[in-house]
Design brief:
D-Maltodextrin-Binding Protein, domain 2, six-stranded mixed β-sheet, five-stranded mixed β-sheet, 10 helices
């Protein structure tokens, strides 16, 4: 699958089951103690602080006025409204986002964090709320491909699935790691790296921008086995169950689909759509050349007609 600079794409969001589980389902499936605890949480006014990066568009980003926005932010707000919870979303640099959770700076992370075995040792994850893959991006006329990265300088954001994949699958590549994906993209444009490896939705978003006009996806979307994004909470925190229940509910009532449509133009579970700019057919090219060749002849004929008319006028005047 190739991407042109004009990209229409959508989320490959993973459908989440709305069946009853130990942590979710309808009110009838809850114990009396759980129902009381939920009611207390909803009426206590305690603030649930949730961290996002604020530098990963379109998933999460910071507006000019300093406010946080993006798919992750809208999903977070929908979940908090569904839980009737008082939430506050804060920005946190990516590298410090898990340590911040562990040190109680906030209660959860909603920042397009992929579920990995390593991260599962440090945090608990909810059910997935999104699914992605990786893109390799470089100039359209370059010889870089997924199979020949040896010795190439490849950029990726630090502590991401992309950086882990590079180090594991392409140890002979010269990996350059960045604090944000924007900085990696900037170095690609400035020629400091040969290519970048990035999450699908982030890469497709960038390829649609004017500064990415001369760039394209190299090869198919890469599945790493760690493509699912989920909410992270501290180990053993019951908040994961509440998020799971709310997530199932906003998917069932259509709220999640509305958010998905807003950012990606598709409903949950629908595949990405890529529109290529079609090249003219051979017959069309030939016709275009014929028209182009005929244009000078038409101009010459008009000039001859004009000259003939002028001669006729001159003769009339002589008479």
């Amino acid at each position: 699958m190739k991407l042109s600079s004009r990209v229409l794409w959508s989320a490959m969001a993973l459908s989440v089951s709305v069946g009853l589980t130990a942590c979710g389902g309808d009110k009838g499936g809850e114990t009396a103690d759980t129902a009381k605890a939920d009611a207390k949480a909803e009426t206590s006014g305690a603030v649930i602080k949730i961290a996002t990066e604020g530098a990963y568009p379109p998933m999460n980003y910071t507006e000019k006025d300093g406010s946080l926005a993006g798919f992750d932010v809208d999903v977070t707000n929908a979940l908090c409204e569904q839980m009737k919870a008082n939430c506050k979303i804060v920005a946190q640099d990516w590298e410090g986002i898990i340590p911040g959770l562990q040190s109680n700076k906030y209660d959860a992370i909603v920042a397009s964090m992929a579920i990995t075995e390593e991260r599962k040792q440090a945090v608990d994850f909810t059910d997935p709320y999104f699914s992605s893959g990786l893109l390799l991006i470089d100039k359209k006329d370059s010889d870089v491909s997924q199979s020949n990265l040896d010795g190439k300088k490849i950029g990726a954001q630090k502590s991401t699935v992309a950086s882990d994949y590079l180090e594991e699958k392409n140890p002979k590549a010269k990996t350059s790691l960045y604090d944000t994906q924007d900085n990696a993209n900037m170095d690609l444009v400035n020629g400091r790296v040969d290519a970048v490896l990035v999450d699908y939705v982030i890469g497709a978003e960038w390829l649609a921008k004017p500064e990415a006009k001369g760039y394209e996806q190299k090869g198919d979307t890469i599945s790493t086995g760690s493509d699912d994004f989920a909410i992270a909470v501290r180990k053993g925190d019951e908040l994961a169950g509440k998020f799971n229940k709310a997530l199932a509910e906003i998917k069932a009532n259509g709220t999640y689909d509305k958010i998905n449509m807003k950012y990606f133009g598709k409903k949950d579970g629908e595949k990405a759509e890529v529109v290529e700019v079609a090249e003219p057919k051979a017959d069309d090219k030939a016709k275009a050349e014929e028209v182009k060749a005929e244009e000078p002849k038409a101009d010459e004929a008009k000039a001859d007609d004009k000259a003939t008319e002028e001669k006729k006028e001159d003769k009339k005047e002589d008479k």
